[in-house]
Design goal:
Helices cover 37% and strands 22% of the residues. It is an alpha/beta fold. Helix 15 (435-446) crosses helix 27 (787-802) and helix 22 (626-638) runs parallel beside helix 27.
């Protein structure tokens, strides 16, 4: 990947090798990451957004690269927050786990590859971090944070002034980064702030009472003095609980867990009793990928380490890398995870569902120009029907929806669309695998303009879309009500897409589907493992759940755009209350996602029609001739195509066009209004001197392979299926059919795959090796003797392109 500019933020612990035990090392390491995370969040630096930051663990340190889209000066703002967090850690832990950090700040071009990152800027940053002169400065001070900045960073960032970056606070330093060339740098220290101790509950003292009060204050202060081998009051580290939460509610859950920690701290006489680590699920790859990344199941080595920490004397806490509590958007994800656990035979993990902590529902955001054209703006209650929504693509409108593999919202929206399109209540392999399902669901998916990994990215794309584009004016988005409230209020969409000051965004009107609107119930799920968590951790998990149900926490959820657990709605502009649809038990996730993978694939289809005089032969129905039946087949095939497919039409016969045997009638293009007009104007007439088959098919295969296939709205990574549908007499008067068939078969097997489907009118058309040729192209040869056989053949083509291969014939 081409190098890009980054802010470089490197940290390393001072004297980390002097820790007395591995337990102290684990506590210090966890404290370092917790302090970094909180400092980054408070300085508005990206911590949870992998596309805006890169993070590498370095044992007793870390390398963090921040994208150039984030102001570089924010890295300076993180330093006092980092010192404050380290002071809080050191005040509540044993002296052997205290942390002081050396930090280097630099900026420059950094390259990424599969092994990590590289570049001169990274090398220079680590040379400064390891410079002996800087290490000496860090050892000589008891400051929580000692920072060194490169000379270029000092002149380009620090000298610009602003909060926390007064140039006068920095001192020059000559660092021996190379034997032949010392480097000029700048250093400063951030001492740990003093911790205030507030004593409450004591009346105005008399002589004896005053002595008691002074004694209490003195003991409290002594318990917080760094270097004390065992703090008198805070002799146990906080119980650590990791909460995995969806991006949609990460901000409100982060704020609530901080309130919970504060409450627990007050109840524990000022000692830190709980440390809730909120991890935002990026959702990339979905449930199965998340399990492979280790968020749910620990390795035997991890289990042994945690068991040792649990039973150790005087620890009272646990250090764990996987989730203890999971807060998905919907119980649909819980069902999906249970399916994966059963399929992978993971018996050491069970899911304890405690109930909902908040709620939301699926809504449809319609651009105002689209709502005006469809005459929706005059509706008093802003309600729709699914049949109405599914009819929009016929009028040239599109959908936007998150991916069902990576989002509860996308999964629910996909299930609702599929149920409406198929008229089925339950989505399983039988209802999703038929030929009719393939064609209907392909039409739905071809109307999906975008299927981003997460709803926030989808809404960000809408926010930044240019006026007049399809996404700006003609694409309705299926998202949660909370996400649309955040969008309409100008919110930052989970911190991923802030609205620039003074900028306008497309106006999305909120509509609900009156019948069967999917519900997002946001359950509280406890990850139960073998061996079980310690009683202390279980107690904190239970208390956190009860806290999230308190009136003040529920009000915070409503303020953020969610429902509360009683169904009370946030402030919003939809006054109708639809019948909420519980999809639990109605979706078979494996078949649904398999069907989604199949039917969303676009296709480049070239239809090649034999116009030799053999096609004038009589044929039952459809105008009475083979050529009339071929025209009917073209019409039926066009109905299979979606908005992101492409279609072309060729004709062929011997000596049809001078010395060529084929003619391009309509070039490859999306089946939009202009392309349909071209196809409607085509009138097929027989011509040429005789029948021909193999050479025109070979030329058509080569033409499809040359085509770029970048149809409307298709991503470069979504390579379309290339398909050739040949409607022909099925013979070639050139002789030696077997040799010609063998050559064509060899060409199909070598190169970009092209699926070949042959609809042959001649009674022996699929013989003499033509069936094996079609199979070599991943297709089939269908003998056609009446219109019933024609319809079955086209069903077979649809099933081959988008249906369940186990059921395709």
């Amino acid at each position: 990947m081409e190098p890009r500019h980054h802010t470089i933020f490197c940290v390393d612990m001072v004297d980390s090798t002097k820790r007395p035990t591995d337990w102290h090392r684990r506590v210090a390491r966890d404290g370092m990451y917790r302090a970094l995370r909180r400092a980054f969040v408070r300085a508005r630096l990206p911590w949870y957004l992998p596309w805006r930051r890169h993070r590498e663990d370095r044992g007793d340190g870390a390398l963090i690269l921040v994208s150039a889209s984030v102001p570089t000066a924010r890295a300076l703002k993180a330093l006092p927050h980092l010192a404050r967090e380290l002071a809080a850690h050191n005040a509540t832990t044993n002296a052997g786990a205290h942390i002081r950090l050396r930090v280097v700040l630099h900026a420059g071009e950094v390259g990424h590859d599969p092994h990590g990152v590289s570049g001169k800027a990274v090398d220079d940053a680590f040379r400064l971090l390891e410079a002996p002169e800087f290490k000496a400065v860090a050892r000589e001070t008891d400051a929580a944070v000692s920072v060194i900045v490169s000379d270029s960073f000092y002149n380009g960032v620090v000298k610009q002034g602003g909060p926390h970056n007064d140039p006068g606070d920095y001192r020059p330093l000559t660092a021996s980064v190379r034997q032949d060339r010392p480097a000029r740098a700048w250093t400063r220290s951030f001492p740990a702030p003093r911790l205030r101790v507030r004593v409450t509950g004591l009346s105005a003292p008399r002589r004896l009472g005053g002595v008691v009060a002074v004694g209490v204050v003195t003991l409290a202060l002594l318990s917080l003095v760094p270097g004390e081998s065992r703090p008198l009051f805070c002799d146990r580290p906080p119980v650590q609980v990791r909460v995995r939460v969806s991006a949609e509610k990460a901000d409100v859950v982060q704020a609530l867990t901080q309130d919970f920690e504060s409450r627990r701290r007050r109840e524990a006489s000022g000692c830190r009793a709980a440390d809730i680590n909120v991890v935002t699920a990026s959702n990339a790859g979905g449930i199965e990928e998340s399990i492979r990344q280790g968020w749910l199941t620990r390795s035997p080595a991890q289990a042994a380490v945690e068991q040792t920490a649990t039973t150790a004397q005087a620890t009272g806490g646990e250090v764990s890398d996987e989730a203890d509590v999971w807060l998905p958007d919907s119980s649909l994800e819980v069902e999906q995870l249970r399916e994966v656990l059963r399929a992978q035979r993971i018996g050491t993990v069970t899911l304890g569902v405690r109930g909902s902590v908040t709620g939301s529902r699926l809504v449809v955001g319609v651009p105002r120009p689209m709502a005006d054209e469809l005459r929706l703006t005059g509706r008093q209650y802003r309600d729709l029907s699914w049949d109405e929504v599914l009819a929009w693509p016929q009028h040239g409108y599109l959908f936007g929806r998150a991916s069902p593999r990576t989002s509860s919202t996308g999964l629910a929206a996909t299930a609702a669309l599929y149920r409406a399109a198929l008229g089925r209540d339950v989505l399983n392999e039988d209802t999703l695998g038929g030929t009719e399902a393939a064609t209907r669901l392909h039409a739905v998916e071809q109307a999906v303009a975008r299927d981003d990994d997460e709803p926030e990215r989808l809404l960000c794309a809408v926010r930044t879309s240019p006026a007049g584009s399809d996404l700006h004016d003609r694409t309705a988005v299926l998202v949660s009500q909370k996400a649309l409230i955040d969008y309409r209020s100008g919110g930052s969409l989970g911190g991923r897409c802030p609205l620039p000051s003074g900028a306008a965004q497309p106006d999305l009107l909120t509509f609900v589907v009156q019948a069967e609107t999917p519900l997002f119930d946001h359950p509280y799920v406890v990850i139960n493992r073998t061996p079980q968590a310690s009683p202390e951790r279980r107690r904190v998990i239970d208390e956190l759940y009860r806290f999230l149900l308190t009136p003040e926490a529920q009000q915070r959820f409503r303020d953020a755009g969610f429902h509360d657990v009683k169904g009370q709605l946030p402030l919003q502009d939809v006054v109708v209350t639809p019948r909420l649809l519980d999809l639990t038990g109605k979706i078979h996730y494996g078949p649904l996602l398999e069907a989604w993978d199949r039917v969303r694939r676009s296709a480049d289809v070239l239809m090649a029609v034999d116009v030799s005089r053999a096609m004038d032969a009589s044929f039952p129905d459809a105008g009475g001739t083979r050529l009339a039946a071929a025209e009917d087949a073209i019409t039926r095939s066009r109905r299979l195509m979606g908005g992101r497919d492409q279609i072309a039409l060729w004709t062929f016969a011997r000596d049809l066009d001078g010395r060529r045997d084929h003619r391009s009638v309509v070039p490859l293009g999306p089946p939009d209004r202009a392309q349909n007009d071209r196809l409607n104007r085509v009138r097929l007439d027989t011509g040429g001197r005789g029948t021909v088959l193999y050479d025109p098919v070979r030329q058509a295969v080569r033409e499809l392979r040359r085509s770029g296939g970048d149809g409307r709205g298709r991503k470069p990574a979504d390579a379309p299926t290339k398909a050739l549908i040949v409607i022909a007499d099925g013979t070639d008067d050139g002789g030696d059919d077997q040799a010609r068939a063998d050559r064509l078969r060899a060409e199909l097997l070598d190169g970009v795959p092209v699926r070949l489907y042959v609809l042959a009118f001649h009674s022996g058309g699929c013989e003499n090796g033509l069936d094996r040729v079609a199979q070599a192209g991943g297709g089939a040869c269908y003998p056609i003797n009446d219109m019933t056989a024609m319809r079955k053949a086209l069903d077979g083509v649809a099933a081959g392109l988008w249906g369940n291969p186990r059921r395709s014939t």
